[in-house]
Design goal:
- The protein is α+β, with helices and mostly antiparallel strands.
- The chain has two helices and four strands.
- The chain has helices at 2-5, 34-50, and strands at 9-11, 14-16, 22-24, 56-58.
- It has a two-stranded antiparallel ribbon with strand order 1-2. Strands 3-4 form a two-stranded parallel ribbon.
- The longest helix has 17 residues, at 34-50.
- The two termini are 25 Å apart.
- The relative contact order is 0.22.
């Protein structure tokens, strides 16, 4: 799925590119409510963005 997002899209005469940084948190290992899961997924996403973008990573306790 992530590779599919990075493929070139042709819209009319234009070539469009999408890049994504995706943080993933898993219930119940990374949180037992939506607020905690979202916070953990966001923390991974922003870490990815600081370090090169264009990837996906799973949240891990203690990883920075």
């Amino acid at each position: 799925m992530h590779k599919t997002l990075q493929e070139v899209m042709h819209i009319g005469e234009h070539e469009c590119y999408i890049n994504s940084s995706i943080g993933i948190a898993i219930y119940p290992d990374n949180g037992t409510n939506s607020e905690t899961l979202l916070r953990h997924a966001d923390s991974r996403m922003y870490e990815i963005k600081r370090n090169g973008k264009g990837r996906f990573e799973f949240f891990e306790d203690g990883k920075r």
